[in-house]
Model the fold of this input.
Amino acid sequence: MPTTQVRACQTCKSDEPHRHLTAEEATWLRDKRGLRDSDNTHDWWKCAREGCRTMRHYWNHSQWEQLPPPDED
Ligand SMILES: [Zn+2]
Done:
């Protein structure tokens, strides 16, 4: 299975490569959406474009989330 998939990005307004969520991103998404541990996040992909923090549901482009900016210490 390829590690990236080109999908439309809500933020970039164009088709961009998307990658699977990291473990941290998946945890954030579970928190944000109130998902149970048994709900998988495999259908969620994150835009790989530099500086873009949008993740989307693979099959449903109306479902997407915007990750908060990274902590700047
Ligand atoms: Zn994007």
Notes: The chain has one domain: 4-66. The first strand starts at residue 4 and ends at 9. The pocket of zinc ion is lined by residues 9, 11-12, 16, 47, 49, 52, 54 (CB under 6 Å). The two ends are 36 Å apart (CA to CA).
